Write the structure tokens for this entry.
Amino acid sequence: MSVQIATGAPDGDRLEHLLERSKAPVQPGAWGIRGRLLVAALAAVVIWGILAWVWQLKHGLAVTGLNDRVSWGFYLTNFVFFIGISHAGTLVSAILRLSHAEWRRPITRLAEMITVVALVVGAGMVVVDMGRPDRLQYVIMYPHLRSPILWDVLSIGTYIAGSLLYLYLPLVPDLAILRDGHVGGRIRQRLYSVLALRWHGGPEQRRLIGRAIGIMAVVIVPVAISVHTVVSWIFGMTLRSGWNSTIFGPYFVVGAIFSGIAGIIVVMAIFRRVYHLEEFITEKHFRYLASLLLVLGLLYAYFTLSEYATVGYKMQVGDASLLSALLTGRYAPYFWTFAILGMVVPIVLLALPRTRTIRWIVTAAVLVNLGMWLKRFVIVIPSMALPLMPYEWGTYRPTWVEWSITAAGFAGFALVFMIFARIFPVISVWEVEEGWEAEDAESFAPVEAPLAAGATILVGEPS
Amino acid sequence: MRRLLATAALGTIAFLAIGGSAPAGAKTRTTITVRSDSVTVNGAPVDVSVKVTDPEGRPVSGALLRLIVPAEFMGEARDEIVGEATTDDAGEAVLRFAPAQIGRIEATVAFWGAHGYAPSSATVAFDVKRPATAYEAVPVGLQARWARSYLILVPVVSVWITYALVLWLTVRIRRAGAHRTSSKKVVTS
């Protein structure tokens, strides 16, 4: 395995500016008054949500709108939504890294951060959904390997561990910058020092980290795909109308990437504006991600049409009731809001050259996220409400407890993200610098790719 | 499909002297007329058309009607309300329900009385057929001999072994940092 040593150096001012901008969020007082107020507001919502959960723990799930017919509600909707968002990091960062997409460099860190934070919030929603979370350990103590729920625990656990590793590895050189730049107080300096792994950027360290990132980039993609496939199997492995589908695996994966990319665009826009990263996160990044979002949107529309057209053509008994409830009945407002505002309008906005501006791309991304939350709602609730016995349709009306915990989930996502960005740089400085070096030194031999590094470690060194 | 006309006066409770002068505070008698398909398929929605009239045959509007079917849950027999509708100005309403059981169902359309009208009810019977299916889906799980549930652990363990390999690389990164050498820039991707 060979290492290319760069002889050129990026423009000094540009690098200084990058260092300054990337370190800005982690400097003391970076939040300002407005930032602190926002953090306080988010923390208040999270605390309120925790109190609502404590109330739920004390009085049981009876304080929610869940009942014997509709036993999955907002919590499971949030779970599927956040797990979907978590696909942003992996598939944008890993796939773009493996495919040598150079433009990825300033946005990979944000994408990887989204993955970890969304996974933690999403997995937390399952715990909240449990009437007796004190029995959570039984899943491990008495595993039932035939249960898709255990598969879910295994795949999400594996994904969280992998995503943390995949976030951490590219962070190491930047942590060394913070360590050497004496950013923060004693505790943070100690943290940076421990996490930076004595990084000094020597050839051996570069080679090893290239290998490690390469391996993780290869491994994390199938893990991510398996996660949302298994999430879909929680539904698809049952004989319930609306869930009994063979395409649920790819349908969920495409939906996850669709909402994940939209999530990145929204987060990118916020950080770009708040931390003045316009020089590094440019319109080009939005336009490239918009193209990906458009392709995924069209794919998702195709899957949606395929799913409902095949069900509607056959019109099996339960499916007929469900489909009429979705298309013209009690769930029609949610379904059509998703279909029009969450799918058709964003596709049009992303496809028209006139609306491929940052403002409209971000608008489309926000609509996609709202629409995809509603889509998860119409996947989970109507199939549960559909009677399997000679009863009326089940009803589900979320209570203040569910609204509070849902709000806390979203606030917690934003809060953890803000705190994370307060401690770690949101732009991968060394990767951007490396990209500049590669651009500047046109006489370079082809650079070594993480994919090659990963392949080498998996199949061995060529002799 | 044959139509059933079920006109019933079952349970028509009259607080009013029939045909005579009504005592003060007495309620007007009502009659429920029901029309519906008598044969239906399990799970398929069926419409039950109902008309509520007073003794003079005038329509009763605003009457809340309930469709009640006998059901069994966990071995216990009980009546379930499976649909509700309110009569319009013509005294008519349509109750829709999808029978989930197979066989003969005797459902009751009930008006519990309101606005000076006495309660009344009528019965309607359905012969619920099993839907035509090529086969019956019975979840039995994967039957192949090689399909053992512990195989699910193979990919999971493989991934965790790879994570361990990556962690070992991070240990090597730290060790390499102990021997500080040239810090020339190196491009790895």
